[in-house]
Amino acid sequence: MKAYKDMTKEELCAEKEALLKRFEDYKAMGLKLDMSRGKPSKEQLDISMKLLDYTDYIEDGIDLRNYGILDGIPSCKKLFADLLGVEPKNILMGPNASLSLMFDYIAQCYSHGVLGCTPWSKLPEVKFLCPVPGYDRHFTILEYFNIKMINVDMKDDGPDMDAIEELVKDESVKGMFCVPKYSNPQGITFSDEVVKRIAALKPAAEDFRVIWDNAYIIHEIYDEGDELLNIFDVLPEYGNEDMVIEVCSTSKMTFPGAGISALAASEANIADILKRLNAQTISYDKMNQHRHAEFFGDLEGMKAHMKKHAALMKPKFEMVLNHLQNELGGKGVASWIEPRGGYFISLDVMPGCAKRVGELCKEAGVTLTSVGATYPYGKDPKDSNIRIAPSLPPVNELDIASQILCVSVKLACLEKLI
Amino acid sequence: MKAYKDMTKEELCAEKEALLKRFEDYKAMGLKLDMSRGKPSKEQLDISMKLLDYTDYIEDGIDLRNYGILDGIPSCKKLFADLLGVEPKNILMGPNASLSLMFDYIAQCYSHGVLGCTPWSKLPEVKFLCPVPGYDRHFTILEYFNIKMINVDMKDDGPDMDAIEELVKDESVKGMFCVPKYSNPQGITFSDEVVKRIAALKPAAEDFRVIWDNAYIIHEIYDEGDELLNIFDVLPEYGNEDMVIEVCSTSKMTFPGAGISALAASEANIADILKRLNAQTISYDKMNQHRHAEFFGDLEGMKAHMKKHAALMKPKFEMVLNHLQNELGGKGVASWIEPRGGYFISLDVMPGCAKRVGELCKEAGVTLTSVGATYPYGKDPKDSNIRIAPSLPPVNELDIASQILCVSVKLACLEKLI
Fold first, then answer.
1. For chain A, which has fewer Cβ within 10 Å, the N-terminal or C-terminal residue?
2. H helices within A68-125, ranges in order?
3. Residue A6 distance to chain B (closest CA, Å)
């Protein structure tokens, strides 16, 4: 395995020649493969179908088919309190996706402000910190509300805390989005030290809020998953109980778009959110909440269910990672992290090559997540990051798609090098 | 039957004496009856349980259990297009309640403005017209966004259009909430003339919006229901296609809080809403959409289902109306309308007596909708209107509750008269 930088021009040209031949062969196959979004596979959806079998919708004598119970049914609040390591009084059950919980919370900060502070819409400028690469839909929310996004680099154990501690001295910096476990797209779990430093932040803005999007909270791939420190256990030490809004959902446990979501926050924040919610709805879908509570039973049941997902996900992650290792290892043109959970593999290619990789893949029939999407405003300043979503395609398709990706990476780099 | 105004003081005192005796008898029964909210009864919920039987979630080859389809599944868009008399391209499927559709739309006007107009949050004052009595949750939305509410009286055939045509000359008047069929709480269906005059409005504000909350669109009680002119058929005559946002839901067809909702609007408005929706969610619950489409089949199926509701509602409405007629008819202390559908009976008692009626009912164990709730800011200027919600209690309870209500009305009026 020789790194490209150590090759002569002739060697590089020969390599390119050979790769072009492979590339043409793939193209000739007329494939249509999709590695673009973190969608569960059909098999993953099938394992939750028992969820639909429940027909008794009475809980504690209350008919859950009727109006009422704004904050969620007790059994669900208990389940998610256990999952998130908080008390039920700190839980609000949400709609069919945590994305809406996040959007609505930012909308609330924008129109009404945080706990009596000036609404963000009334301020000349509002900024948010965005660990990058990150989740495009976080960025979409911020862009919708015209909140200026500031990139903060991700390190091996979470976002660059030195940078963050400096940036929060600016009072117009009002918050930060995080995916603290199996981050999207890198699969990085924040270290205890990073979680503690976040919990200990002393932002200039009183209404600074960390949106703790724990989307992959128990989405392990291996028996031994990463451990994330519970930030709500640490916040009180620094008097920062109100600083974090945590969300999660069953989108990738049961059904995407037909699951349930939950929000965890201090009692003050919950009360603040309920003021809005009281105008926005009478309740979210309690029948779906009940189905989920019955289906999982308890946290152990939820974890047991997630092992079934892990069994389906593991061969797919390994398929992609093996190809990356075999084809790109030692070439010095790309780097990646081997995640132990979550939904993505993040691939960093030679700067200035990512867009070209996307084009080549497309030409050969493989759709990747829009290159650049993992950065605010869709602009990867280094044009380097590619998000791979291995969950949806069958393993045999993933086999080909990964090869095409690897060949495209090498071709794009060679085009640059030669 | 002698009107109170024609009675001598002695006759009034004797009447009061007799009523107080009845009142004490009711109190001694220690009842706990609820006529406060428009909740369907258990029997009404039971008739939709087949909705939960569907297990096949593939539609047009697409797995509805997975992510995607922001605007709603085609079968549901078709069904609601037929119901609302528009094209599927004018339909957006919503979340579990149309209340959220309305809240989110107002929120969007507030933060981002209507079709390029100045966001309402940036204006010194925004006003909305509120036909009164009306639906308290409309008022709650407006109050949340600090939109000033202006009362417009309801007449027999809809809101006072002379007043509205005058009020919309004020550019700060940005919209109006309407329940055009079987209005909440009066059960009035807007006449063709009223619908046409609304469609023909020439508001000073370019971004004036009528929120057409068609909550009881096919919620008839009798075989012959009221006919509401389809406002979308009339709007083009006046070039006002963009002025109306219509919503409806299955909350009172299948399950409150676990149904589906729909919004109908011009293509320009739909596109404007989708811009927000694209940041707010990936899709609403398509599995629930599919269940509903399968359960109803088509508009005829939906109407057939609603006849089952009517059969359960009719005896309850008649029970209340009979008591009102027998006990209050000819007394000159109260008036009411006999609705042909919807969820409520609106009772207007002698001015200055409604709150007292609420107190007396409570004392005797009957909970009414908070008196005043049918007016903005909870303030009925005449203290006259009482909303009766007959759907939830069993007929035998409704029998007693109606008697208690009638006795309380008469007592409250006698207290005033003597």
1. N
2. 74-84, 98-112
3. 45
